[in-house]
Amino acid sequence: MSIYNEYKTKLTPKIIEDIQDYLKDKKVNDAKLRKILDKVVEEYEQARVHAGESVGVIAAESIGEPGTQMTLNTFHFAGVAEMNVTLGLPRIIEILDGRKKIKTPMMEIYLKKPYSAGKNVKEIALSIKETKLEEISTEFSINLVESAITVALDKIKIKELRITLAQIVTVVSKQLKGFSVKASKDGSSIILKSRSQEESLNEVYKAKEKIKDTHITGVKGISQVLPVKREEEFVIITAGSNLTDILQLAEVDNFRTTTNDIFEIQEILGIEAARQAIVDEVFKVIENQGLNVDVRHIMLVADTMCVSGFTKGITRFGVVSEKASVLARASFETPIKHIISAALIGEVDKLDSVVENVMLNQPVPIGTGLPGLVTKIKKKEEK
Amino acid sequence: MAKETKDKEKAKESKAEEKLEEVKEETEEKKAEETQKEEAAEEKKEKEPEKETKEEKPGTAAEETQKEEAAEEKTEKTKPEKMELQEQYIYKQVNSIVFSVLPPKTIKDMASAKIVTPELYDKEGYPVDGGLMDIRLGVIDPGLRCKTCGSKLKECIGHFGYIELARPVMHIKFIALLLNLLKSTCRDCSRILIPQNKIEKYKEILDAAEKEKGLEERRNKIKEIITNLKTINKCPHCKARQQKITIEKPTTLFENEKRITPIEIRTRLEKMPDEDCELFGIIPPHARPEWMVLTILPIPPVTMRPSITLESGERSEDDLTHKMGDIVRINQRLFENINAGAPEIIVEDLWDLLQYHITTFFDNAVAQLPPARHRSGQPLKTLTERIKSKEGRIRHNLAGKRTNFCARTVISPDPMLKLNEVGVPMVIALKLTVPERVNEWNLAYLKKFVENGSDKYPGANYIIRPDGKKKKITDETKEATLEEIQPGYIIERHLMDGDRAIFNRQPSLHRMSMMCHKVKVLPGKTLRLNPAVCHPYNADFDGDEMNLHIPQTEEGRAEAEILLEVQNQLISLRYGLSIIGCVQDGISGNYLLTKELVLSRQEAIDLLSSVGIEDFSKLPKKEKIHGKEIFSVLIPDDFNFTGKTRSGEEVVIKDGKLISGHMDRNNLGEGSGLLLRNIHKKYGKHATIEILGNIFRLGIFVLFKHGFTTAVSDTDLPEGIRIKINETLENAKKEVVSLIGLYYDNKLETFPGKTLRETLELRILEVLNKARNETGKIVANEADKSSHTMIMADSGARGNLLNLAQMAACVGQQAMGGKRVEKGFTGRTLSSFKKGDLSPEAHGFISNGFKTGLTPYEFFFGAITGRDSLMDTALRTPKSGYLYRRLTNAMQDLKVEYDHTVRDAAQKIIQFDYGEDGVDVSKSENGIINIKRIIKTIGV
Q: Would an 8 Å CB–CB cutoff place A236 in contact with chain B?
């Protein structure tokens, strides 16, 4: 153990762990172990990046090149029941754009011990799913005389959800402030009446449509749930995402539960978590397409998106707008805008990135163009 | 050529400069102007010293000439002596560029001519003085000399002129800003509508924002402040009432419904103190609000708007010249009318017209204005259009360059070439040249090329004298040239074997799309490459063309050789495995050889020598030699390796001998397995391409000797099997029918979160896919393992079992977007089906194989999905291309620093250690440090 400690500064924890793992059942004396570790250090040092390496371009190439090979459509062939998720190129674009609203938000909810083994999974799943008034009712009708709305309820559905009429009434009246809500005498429907006296018919109609969206039970935003067994464990996959509310549920293992909505993660768990989420999501898509891209490239992209403390998309409004060089920004998109705003404040382009120097036919300060030569030149005698 | 690009660049700069009214301080220009307008220049120098921040080291060699003159007069620095040997050294470098708005005074000062007449040429076709083609603005005709600087065509970079506008005119690009300025300043005292005591506070807020989050944040804050000011209606300084200011797009401003003329706007803005400008994001020495109302218009040099002489001898002027002609004409008319005391209405109309022309001169795509057009109706390309977009100056000419010394033709394969060679046709070798400098040691050698002339290979096409004069070598000049040659001359000799060339195939998505090869001059008309390097280029030989570039300098050649050569690109930097490997015949040949072939000793030696091996000592001394032993000859003696074949068998190479297992794509192919990666690790890049080339050639020669072909009969199946397959398909169909029955009876159990119909679809797909896979299995089991089609599939050289099953048995379900085919007519897919038919056939299940032939409706389904996938590719390419462009643009200046951190151009830290462990992917093994291998080499 102590020998490993000596190498702590020379090797990464992952490598040391791997060595330990590999040598676990083998008998290795100290001298040999040292020899092994020295050799690993040597190879590790050899495998390190050189200074000046243009890792940014390499990362961009490594993601851009396989991008051309990715499918545009979501293909999942053998039709085992799975959620429909945006995959392939559109998903990558969505992530890297840093879009606030994603096409198919999705959560993977892990459960705590007794539940993860399968206890009450279906019930938990059902309780998470958002139910709207429309789903538990059979009919919405308007009483023209009283300008009231009668909602006939679906008893079977209500039974399934294990809620009572009284509960529905309280939930609905809480959300619809302008209405008085009552259960009908036979208990088969609820009646809503507007509190404001003079309500035009038109407004009642509008109200009727609005009422349909009233949230009854479950977590807001979760439109579908699907309990799946994954290696001895039950996981609930959902369409729609609401990390804040889900994490507060007692049954949920909030260490492993995730969503594919990066902005939600950023808001709740912070920028570091968001960065990790970007890496994971992009990697998942690329892997799913059967392509081989090293994580380091994806990490670099995620890091450029997150350095400022907020996730910024790789667009002219996001990462690119923060570049220091006027010409670099101008060469991307909307050149005129950039040049004009630069002129107003007398911006100085220090010419220290790539495009500007390409524009001026000068060597770029990257890779072999980076090192300069410091030397004293003998001053030639003036004539 | 280099000079031409340079000129273009300059043209662009001057253009941008003038158009945007910003000074881009490029010394050469400045200096050229300064020489000419000495006093003015002197003055300016004093006035704006910090603007001249730019480097004390301008320009490249191309501008040497004009700079010299400038340098002589201005900077009393060491002026480059006139050496006999005029080297093209870059001795100075642009350090920074300052952007700012051109003040009217500078426009006048830097101008070399005042333009007063719209006429271009007189009767003799000579440029009119004071016209737009005035020869003081530069020369575009051969033979003429510039009146300003005295240099000839291509030497003179052109000079600005100016027009005095009869009435001031708004600058379209600053309209939004002008509106904001007027809204937020007092109409009487021109102060910003912020009380004096608060101005400092706001400035502090802005500075803090800039310090914290950069310039972009400062701009956002400014916007915030300004929007808040718009509602204030009493000036905190002079207590004057404010009026409501509105804009009628594009360029007319109103105050309380009353028009404010540019004259009035200008007088208001002139009064604005510098202190207040800062709060609008205008920093005074660089820009002043009143400069945004033009009183004087710079005229770009003629060199940036050359006229073209048509075949008929007629002159066709540039779009910009046309537009400026309009401006000058209207401006003159306006002058005349004002002087003649014409009624205000007429003057105002002309004024508006002038405004229109000037607006479209800057930007001919302003939303509310009709674009100015040619007589033919096509819109003029004015300043903004010249700069903007992909075909604009920035992306087309500045960020993208063109080169000489390159070639392009169709490519074709040649496995006998080395991996790092490229076959160049003789015709190309005669045209492309390599410059070689004469010295006393190579004089005789280089003279031989000149003796051969330009038609005889290997000859030379040009010589370059030390003074930079280029001379073509012809039969007439040959003798004289030979006499003349002495050390210091450069000979441009023909391309020869062993020269370095950069080979490229578009789209260049990779750095592996441009690699350096050694030239091999060959007969024929195509560029030749080893098929094993097709993969990094993504090339095939169905008519692909590729480009060849010959580096012209020693630095270029050195970099090409050290960084770009094929062996240096072996390990993909995307995933850390070999990107080059055997393909096609190279794989199937080695598969056959290592799996089952047993050859006589003679045959074995024959085979190896045709590959290029001369040392047969490694062959066992026996009569019958197994293929594995032949293969082992190519492997170094101390190489050890274990791996897996595609079928899961263990591959063991011990002490350079293939002991068990056989070669297939898992070990030989690109991007898979560690065999090639380990060879590379142990023996280095040069050995690797040597070994790989030999293995590849061995595979091909095995097939030459053995014979290899595919036939339709490979897909033949015995009668019994046909029946079996049909049975499986029938059963599957029956199952589907029963599923449909259940669906109609509402007895189908739905999947959670799916509707009944969706569940049915999923279930049907499942059944049908299972059926197809089953037929595939039957075919795989029954097919003759020794048939060449199977060998190709098993070795991974080409095709897979699915392809075979599709040919022999059943094509299977045609899917569109993950579902069965649905679209077509109402309620049905094709008119030959009943509406609402849910059966497999009616939704694109093809139960025939390609060999038996498809029924008409099956054929249609195949066509439908085929077209769908074509659409997919066509739509995907631009999308992924744009993503790629954004990625490169955002990340191109990230680099690893000497302290291991990854930083951007502004030295902002992106990562503390690249990829968290600092490992270069192209030096790793599939992204990791291979602990297992290292420990094994030490031995536990």
A: no
Here the CATH number for the domain that contains residue A80 is 1.10.1790.20
Closest chain B residue to the Cα of A41, Cα to Cα: B929
Tell me, yes or no, if the two domains B406-569 and B585-706 fold the same way: no
Q: Do B910 and A304 touch (CB under 8 A)?
A: yes
Quote the pLDDT of residue B749: 79
State whether A68 and B100 contact (CB < 8 Å): no
Which distant-in-sequence residues (6+ apart) come within 8 Å of B13 by Cβ? B24, B26, B29
Which of A75, A92, A342 has the CB atom closest to B99's CB atom?
A: A342
The domain defined by B406-569 carries CATH number 2.40.40.20: yes
Per-residue confidence at A380, pLDDT binned at 50, 70, 90? low
Summarised one tens digit per residue, pLDDT across range B822-835 is 877 888 888 888 88
Contacts of B815 in chain A (CB under 8 A): 75, 77
Q: Which band of pLDDT confidence, cut at 50, 70 and 90, is reported for residue A382?
A: low
* Alpha carbons A105 and A90: distance in angstroms, whole number: 14
A226·B753 Cβ contact <8 A: yes
Question: A226 pLDDT band (50/70/90 cuts)?
Answer: confident
Give B-chain residues touching A379 at CB under 8 angstroms: 78
Q: Which chain B residues have a beta carbon less than 8 Å from that of A317?
A: none
User: Burial of B784 by CB count in 10 Å (0-12 exposed, 13-18 middle, 19+ buried)?
Assistant: exposed
CB pair distance less than 8 Å for B910 and A307: yes
Domain B712-854: assigned CATH number:
1.10.132.30
Interatomic CA distance for residues B250 and B174, integer angstroms: 11
Please, which residues bridge with residue B397 across strands? none
Query: What CA dihedral angle connects B193, B198, B199 and B205, to 10 degrees?
Result: -120
The architecture CATH gives domain B585-706? Orthogonal Bundle (1.10)
Distance from C-alpha of B765 to C-alpha of B771, rounded to nearest angstrom? 10
What is the CA angle B396-B402-B403, rounded to 5?
175
B-chain residue closest to A42, CA distance: B934
Residues of A in contact with B52 (CB under 8 A): none
- Helix axis angle, B175-184 to B215-229, nearest 10°: 50
| Residue A95 in contact with partner chain B when CB distance is under 8 A | no
> Which residues of A, range 28-47, sit inside 8 Å of B by Cβ?
28, 32, 35-36, 39-40, 43-44, 46-47
Has residue A121 been placed in a domain? no
Q: What domain count does chain A have?
A: 4
Where in the sequence is the domain holding A333, given as residue range(s)? 323-369
* Gap between the Cα atoms of B756 and B745, Å rounded: 11
Q: Which of A283, A300, A321 delimits the end of a domain?
A: A321
Residue A87 has pLDDT above 90, yes or no: no
- Looking at the fold, whether A316 and A337 belong to one and the same domain comes out as no
pLDDT band at residue B433 using 50, 70 and 90 as cut-offs? very high
Which residue, A198, A217, A236, sits at the end of a domain? A217
Chain B positions in Cβ-Cβ contact with residue A60 (cut-off 8 Å): 884, 887-888, 890-892
